[in-house]
Amino acid sequence: MFKNYLKIAWRSLRKRKGFSLINILGLSLGFGCSILVFLFVQYHLQFDNFHHNADRIYRFNTEEHRDIVDYEPSVPPGFANAFKQDYDYAEIVAKSVDRDDFLFTIETSGDKKQLKADVDFTEADFFKIFNYPLINGTNDAPLTEPNTALITEQLAKHMFGDTDPINRTFVLENKETIRVTGVLKDLPKTSLNQADAFISYKTLKSYSEFLSSESWGGINSSLHVYALMRPNQSIVQIEEQLQDYVQKFRANHKNVHQYKIQPLSDIHFDNRFNGGINSQTLWIFSLIGFFILIIASINFINIATAQSIYRSKEVGVRKVLGSDKRHLFWQFMAETFIIGLFALVLGVGLCLLLLPSFNSIFDLDLSFSGILNIKFLAFIMTLLALVTLLAGSYPGVLLARIAPVLALKRKLSQKDSGGYLTRKTLVVTQFVISIVLIIGTIVVGKQLRYAISSDLGFEKDGIVMVEIPDDIEPIQLNGLKERISQNSSVQKITACFASPGAGYNNWGTSVKFNNKPESEDFNLQVKAGDKDYLDAFGLAIIAGRTFYEKDSVDEILVNQDFVTKVGLNDPNEVLGKQVNINGGLAKGSIVGVVADFHDSDFSENISPIFIAPIPNLYTELAIKINLKNANSAISHIEKEWTAVFPDYIFEYDFLDDRVAELYETEQRFLSLVGIFSGIAIFIGCLGIYGLILFFVVQKTKEIGIRKVLGGSIKHIVGLVMQDFFKLIAIAGIIATPIAWYFMNRWLENFEYKTAINWWIFVLAVGIVMAITFVTISYQALKAATTNPVKSLRTE
């Protein structure tokens, strides 16, 4: 029986090739988008699920409660050992400090090779918590001795070629000689940790006294503490007990800590603690993929129900010959299955074709081989079954209930065949989804343009940021600045720690104001720069003056937000007041107030900051250049820089690129919404094109009569189009509050946001109307220009 269903279904599809093609193309795009979304979601859900006992691995985080709550994926350096000594909740506790772009120098037979790689300073027990096996398959990582390292296969290849790397040495950051004691298998892309080398924790002291100490005085976001908890522990109860540490170690601090324990499975999805992606984003992408599939299914239903009046004779004959409703229903389900199967194969092909571009946009590592697994096959089979049921059942019921007498006498109307009101409802649903996606694309793009092109309070264009080693002497630095400045394309130059904005090197610390014994209850952002800092970044003084460079720091600049946070209104009121920052890092009087500037992205408020000349903090040169001669200017900078630092690698980037990187997630979100909006509209247009063919045939006689009675082409084209424009208008009314609600919720993530103007909704509806007009104009004009004699002869 099933074989017969398929045979008849195949004949029926071949008979109506045009409509079958429309259905297959629409469904294939729906399947392709759904598969890409599935792969995207599956990729992110796989993060860190490969570790043994992953359900018992946790990270300790800190909520810093001041005037606002800051979230740090870290704890004070002394936390790990204290927790191990005081509690028995964990089997293993280990510390790790991640550092990006450390310099590796390898000497082989007199030749020197240099490269940069990401480093983790880790305790040996770290590898008893996480499953990062050596190439011999064991997880016994020998990192107990100082100056020893484990490196990944890829880094070993880059450093030592095909030779055995075990017991080979390299120099790290031109300081310590490190010996390789093992080679790790390359870490999966779906790993929280993406270090290229793991250095013994005892080596850290050469690179950071604070992080290698047992201090409770501060937090550095590069230090992480992980634990393999014993089974069946109550995390809530442990967190409550950890509050004793606040009184024990931080009783005199206004920065009140709350120590939190985060499951490994949550880390990737928690943006508060620098997670990779927000779980809300996965839900949004999943819903978009689902709605596109719904649009494709709606196309199928609309075209199928519209065809029902033209398949009525076939149904009548079958019923007269003995077919019952059940046979007719399954006959149509078989047709739907065949169309769905063809569409699924084509959708998988489209997915594979688009996968490289998809990987590029979202920085993924999906491959053809990676998708051929049981989960993927189960997903696409479920998808096929769902679409077959969703798209085939309602048209199947309509066809099965057609009265054979009316069908054979060709007296079947749209009302008799059913589905007319349903079809309009489904078309409106299509338009609603398309309009909401278009509005979302416009709002996200508008917010991105607002964030990137707004006045951030500092100059960012044409500023080259160049790293400098932390052991440079002031006389060297001044000489380098002078030589770089001799090039006519170099306009300004400053040495600094933490440029304005870009979210780089954020360092919040405590401040005592006006000789008060207690610290203020807000976090003060550390900025350090020489006398040219303000000029190079175009920062404006609104009260007082800039500082003078001296041997010791005794003059300090603050911003307007600092003035507000200390409870003053007039910037002049803080001039001459004393500040003590970070227990003496900078100590002196306030001599000037700079205008506020955005120190991070628009999702955060402007922070109180201070600027002072602290040479031992300088990590970068900021060089303003003439972009017309950018290549020659950068070549000159590289030449002079390399002359001073021959043992380092010259690297640079532009400050405006750093600012743009802050919105990389939003840019990717915009790309996906924009692409899927286009696909949704295209699928909808396919369905509209199919419907207009039936519409024109249905009104053939009416059009002919109107032409005989003097109807103009313009009038007849309007007749054909007016129904669709009415549906779009209704869809616009429905879509407007839906889109407004969801985009308002999305914009709540930003402290500084664009407005959702009325014209956005009008534009979205106008775009859909314009695209619909283009889609149906050919058939409408064809119907309007057809000879009325021919139209009136049509049965």
From TrEMBL:
It is found in: Cell membrane. Residues 20-244, 432-620 form the MacB-like periplasmic core domain. The chain crosses the membrane at residues 21-41, 282-304, 328-356, 376-404, 425-445, 669-697, 724-743, 755-781. PROSITE patterns: PROKAR_LIPOPROTEIN. One of its GO terms (molecular function) is transmembrane transporter activity. GO terms for cellular component: plasma membrane. Its main location: membrane. Residues 287-403, 675-788 form the ABC3 transporter permease C-terminal domain. It comes from the Bacteria. It is a multi-pass membrane protein. Keywords: Cell membrane, Membrane, Transmembrane, Transmembrane helix. This is ABC transporter permease.
